[in-house]
Amino acid sequence: MRMKKVFISVGEVSADIYASYIVKNLKEKFHFSGIAGPKMLQAGIEPISKIDDISVVGITETFSKYKHIKKVFKASIKAIKDCDAIIVVDFPGFNIKLIQEAKKQGKRVVYFISPQIWAWHYSRIYKIVKNTDLMISILPFEEDYYRPFISDSFRFEYVGHPLVDIVKPQTSLEEFTLRLGLPWKRRFIGLLPGSRESEVKVLLPILLQSAELLRRSLGDVHFLIPVPDNVLSIVLDMVKPYKLPLKVITSECMENPSHEVMRHSVFSIIASGTATLEAAIVGNPFLLVYKVSPLTFFIGKRLVKVGHLGLPNIIAREEVVKELLQERCNPVEISNSVLEYLYNPDKYNRMKEKLSEVKSNLGGDRAISRVTQLIENFLTNIL
């Protein structure tokens, strides 16, 4: 009997991590191909393309990769013809169009991780529902938006957030410093400029300039930059001109370096995205920073319907984590904000308490197991 074929499409590093568990846990039962990142490749997927070809931040930033994205889209449509089902993970600008094409071919569709229709462009929900058989949600409030559409042809399941399973730092402070050759009894500050080339190029210089200001005030501080492989060469080139006590940390040094940095840093400065929710789960205080082109921000601000950018704040329904966006994302304001927390223990500890509450709202452990079981049952029953 022929092994059933499943196409998976991801466009971001976090989605690559989540999807890699699906591939790893189900590859003995289904053949997986698709748009993949490094974790999915390690898990054993057959790559049609890589996420670096389509991953961008913002509207204007999409223009520079338009030809690559179009090429990958055409290759994906062709590959889907030979597959029995398709799984897409978030990344709506690409994936909603992809599931529309898949449905034209009569394929069954699983949408894992809903686009943020509750934040902006709610009208996308109609295309999502029309072209999706099973929606698997990781945020507790999303069912309120999808409930009116649940039917025989559209199923909705909430599983909790996979990050609660994934974000489990392993090293003690002693092991962490010894393995990386870091100075003992120094305060560490994490600098996390994102996982996409476009955001790293914008944010890392700002974070490094902030680090220079912080060093003048704090003295005995060491800066840590956990870096995914896809932007490592860019980061190494960008840090060279700076005479800072810093360490660039990759997955060759330790598994999940960003989680270890978040754990052992007294404070972190983190690009908006999944990493901010990871940091909330770890529980140490941090700032959220974000900067895109003025046009992208202007358009986004007119479309977005929520009061906060960061998921920890959206889940908490208040600003637990300070957000420094656009013009406020500058070295002076960033460094002053970090010092504000480090010099005020009450404020620092209040944020830790609020971050703990955010984690408790994410659904507990075993979300990945629930996702895998749902997908296995769905694919087994329909194929």
Model description:
This protein is α/β, with parallel strands linked by helices and 383 residues long. It contains 18 helices and 13 strands. Strands 3-2-1-4-5-6-7 form a seven-stranded parallel β-sheet, sandwiched between helices. It has a six-stranded parallel β-sheet with strand order 10-9-8-11-12-13, sandwiched between helices. Helix 1 (13-26) packs across helix 18, helix 10 (197-218) packs parallel to helix 11 and helix 12 (257-264) packs across helix 13. The longest helix has 22 residues, at 197-218. The mean pLDDT is 92.
How much helical structure, as a percent, in the residues?
Answer: 40-55%
Structural class of the helix and strand makeup? alpha/beta
Q: Strand tally, please? A: 13
Task: Indicate the CATH class of the largest domain.
Answer: Alpha Beta
Shape: globular
Proportion of beta-strand residues? 15-25%
CATH architecture field of the largest domain? 3-Layer(aba) Sandwich
Number of domains: 2
CATH superfamily grouping of the largest domain? Glycogen Phosphorylase B
